[in-house]
Amino acid sequence: MLSLGVISIAFVVYIAHRMDVVDHESQPVYLTLKLPAYYTWLDNSSISPVFATITASQKTEIGKVIYANSITLTPGTDTVNLKCDRVII
Length: 89
Prior knowledge:
- The chain is built from four helices and three strands.
- It is mainly alpha-helical and 89 residues long.
- It has one domain (2-32, 49-88).
- The N and C termini lie far apart (47 Å).
């Protein structure tokens, strides 16, 4: 069963390559060998996520929502709650 899966994948990759539909912005092969080191770094126990409460300086409700959404767009952060002028991230 696994060999049929491997053959299917190889066939699809071959057809896609022949059709020239494989873009050159896909996963760089040279980075693939560095994935285990990245996963090891990602599982580092020194990372300690915490909740923090900050005060929003915006006056309108829509301003506070845009502020909270902007925090969520920052990698590694997430807005959990928005109540009055307090934002829990």
